Amino acid sequence: MSILVDENTKVVVQGITGRDGSFHSQAMLDYGTKVVAGATPGKGGTECVDVPVFDSVLEARTATGADTSVVYVPAAFAADAVHEAFDAGIRLVVCVTEGIPTFEVMRVYAKMKALGVRMIGPNCPGIISPGKCKVGIMPGHIHTPGKVGVVSRSGTLTYEVVDQLTAAGLGQSTCIGIGGDPIIGTNFIDALELFEKDPGTEAVVLIGEIGGTDEEEAAEFVKSEVTKPVVAFVAGQTAPPGKRMGHAGAIISGGTGTAKEKIEAFNKAGIAVAEIPSQISGLVADLVKAG
Amino acid sequence: MKIHEYQAKEVFARYGIPVPPGRVAATPEEAKKIASELGKPVVVKAQVHVGGRGKAGGIQFGKTPDETKKVASKVLGMDIKGLTVEKVLVTTSVDVASESYLGLVVDRRAKKAVFMASPAGGVDIEEVARSTPEKIFKVHVDPCTGLLPYQARFLASRLEKEPKLARQIADIALKLWRVFWETDCSLAEINPLVKTTDGQIVALDAKINLDDNGLPWHKDLEAMRESEEEADRLAREMGLSYVKLDGSVGCCVNGAGLAMATMDLIKHYGGEPANFLDIGGSSSPEKVLTAMRIICSDPGVKAIFFNIFGGITRCDDVANGIVTALKDIDINVPIVIRLTGTNEEKAREILSKADLAATTSMDEGVKQVLGMAQGGVS
Question: Rounded to 5 degrees, what are φ and ψ at A258?
């Protein structure tokens, strides 16, 4: 089992004709994802990586039955692309684009809540249910099907952890990169709730980083609502305050959002915290065995 | 991006928020000239991106142009919490009857902007939030409607009982909202907002932080960027994220999370990172070359660690960048390379031709580089 995407997911790619869009559409197809359509204004009627391209998401959905969209369009047009997908009846939008102004994301978030739909990201690697479907930019080959759910604010750090899980024989049910921006559509709690309900997930790895209080809220949630074992890691223990560490959301401001506070919150909630990434797979293996 | 008080006041004035008249000066002579043009007693305020300027002596009064020159010469060049004062704002002195606070920030949890008002103005609002949270009044702003007039009236009513002045404050609150929203701020703050002894409401201080993601749409504000360190400029222009730290191990990593985890791992094994550096997703050899230039410009660096997990980033691109950098730049510290992922084999070939080796494990790589940084091998 898996969450949010599986072998039945039908994907429309917004910005399929761009450099990144076409490259990753091909990679998604190679992985076995059902990429059924592309949408690029003005390119309707053409094909890209053997996939039919439409002028709008509405046309793409009507013609192909796409239920999920992935957005590769540049930051200036990305919020509009997400609004378009939601208005066209798409239920899940994965927004890979980095650099969208915060206020634009706020408005997308408000629409998402009003319609009861979901956005993953922005500024994220996407989501993969190994062996079934990958929607995003992560390297597919490092993943393997299994029973560990992974949720992370990072991209490459997640690959690092997944690679180690796979090497340790711990396959994954679904891995979600929720994104490095201050405002994101799907947060840790949303992912934890889905993993808790998923019979195919036995344990969850949560990879947090400095900035905001999502990890603290996740710790509270795990304590009260999650019965499955959770292993956490927090990046940025050596990050100085007041400096943005690459991700727009990775900043300690006004003394809050430090790694120390987050690790303390996890400890308090009884969650196993890895000191360094290479300890994660060992902790997961122990908990799965004990469980 | 942070801008200075004098720049923030320029933005406030554009939106009709009342600020005391004044101008910025870089020399005591300029300060004197501004004071005589204003024709009134003035305040000389250090323009540095740090709180607690007043306590540090960075805010001084000048009753006459000559006295202004004298105090400006004291404040200019002053060191405030490690920052040198290069500019002062010379602005007319105001007789304060009472001080309050108005400010907007992004509430990440609520996914909305939050507008805060407090009658406890003139002090650090985070301190007020800790010690007397009941003195802070908040309203969340719906991003689809913007700040509504009734919300502005509510906030104003918490700061001022006299109806005419409360109306003035509500008007300022609505204007501050427009500043915040239309210029893509991450923070817009008036602290203190003062009532003068002759019954006027004035923004005595102004603070604006801008959302970096919004800057491409605000060229006028982007132009307010101050002169920056060469390394920071190079990084920004090449699309790298770079933060200088004080350690001895230079880091070059793809991805922000992995870059932070790399710094942490260096610390975990007993070393100190010299920097945070994320070369980003699709890393061309040019980006790697620039990253090497930046890292090598830091005299504290004793060894360099490359940590690459190839996804979109192709390991061969990084290897080519490293080989080019070794030819183009005079590098006299050891380099340890960890790479794995996309095009790893090609990368190893490129590196071995240049007599370089690469490890596949992040922990191994960090242990190796620490041995070199601490052993002084070169």
Answer: -80, 155
Q: 10 Å Cβ neighbour count for B309? A: 26
CB B65 within 8 A of CB B35: yes
Containing structural domain, residue A59: 10-120
Q: How does residue B377 score in pLDDT terms, banded at 50, 70 and 90?
A: very low
Continuous segment of H or E residues that includes residue A52: strand A51-54
Q: Do A238 and B261 touch (CB under 8 A)?
A: no
Does the ipTM surpass 0.85? yes
Q: Choose the final residue of a domain: A59, A88, A120.
A: A120
Q: How far apart are CA B319 and CA A188, in angstroms?
A: 36
* Band of pLDDT at residue B282, cut at 50, 70 and 90: low
Tens-digit pLDDT profile for residues B80-107: 988 899 999 999 999 999 999 999 999 9
> Which range is least confidently modeled, A167-171, A241-245, B20-24, B143-147?
A241-245
Annotation marks residue A247 as catalytic: yes
A282 touches chain B (CB under 8 A): no
Give domain B15-93's CATH architecture. Answer: 2-Layer Sandwich (3.30)
Q: CATH number, domain at A258?
A: 3.40.50.261
**CA dihedral sign, ordered A255, A97, B210, B241:** positive
Q: How many domains does chain A have?
A: 2
**A-chain residues within 8 Å CB-CB of B256?**
154-155, 180, 209, 245-247, 250
Token code pair at residue B181: 């929203």
- Please check whether the domain covering B230-375 is classified as CATH 3.40.910.10: no
In chain B, which residue's Cα lies nearest the Cα of A249?
Answer: B108
